[in-house]
Amino acid sequence: MPQALEKVDIYISTKPKDAQGRFLKGLILTEMGRPADAIAIFTKLTEDFPELPEPYNNLAVLYAQQKQYDKARAALEMAIRTHPSYSIAHENLGDVYAKLASQAYDKALQLDSSNTATQTKLSMIRELISTSSKPGAKTAAPPRARLPKR
Q1: FRET partner for 111 with CA separation of 20 to 30 A, picked from 22, 51, 118, 132?
Q2: Residue 148 phi, psi (nearest 5)
Q3: With 80 as the cut, is the pLDDT of residue 6 above it?
Q4: In whole angstroms, how far apart are CA 12 and each of 39, 48, 56, 84, 120?
């Protein structure tokens, strides 16, 4: 991975406004276990290219991995706003909502542990979460070449 990062850094140094190269760097940093650096890359991409859904989606993946589900939800909503038919973002948003529901049911049970309806709902949500992929687990591929370069 370090060689890939070095190569993408060289590429970006020649084309600093290239969305694809910068996105690829964010993916490499994610794979290298450097989420803070990847978040910085994807955040800057959303600022420079607000019309691209992929950086929002991948930000959401990173936020979900850090259990920052409200931030993940907001990023996915932006991805969907920029590209309403972006199925990966819709699926990831469903996973994030399931995780948020689980947290809400957990809190409700902390306040009233005898609530059998809430216990049943929490069990159903936990089963759903365990049988599906992790929240935000689907990352996006780099933006296609047809996208604008700045």
Answers
A1: 132
A2: -65, 145
A3: yes
A4: 17, 15, 20, 30, 52
pLDDT of residue 2: 85
| φ and ψ of 68, to 5 deg | -100, 70
C-alpha distances (whole Å) from 126 to each of 33, 72, 98, 102, 130 are 27, 19, 8, 7, 6
Collapsed DSSP state (helix, strand, coil) of residue 75:
helix
- Residue 47: is it exposed, middle or buried by C-beta count within 10 angstroms (0-12/13-18/19+)? exposed
- Residue in 56, 45, 97 with CA at minimum distance from that of residue 78: 56
> pTM for this one?
0.83
Which one is predicted more confidently, 137 or 31? 31
- How far is it, in rounded angstroms, from Cα 125 to Cα 56? 25
Residue 136 binned pLDDT confidence (cut-offs 50, 70, 90): very low
Question: Which single residue is written with the structure tokens 């930000």?
Answer: 59
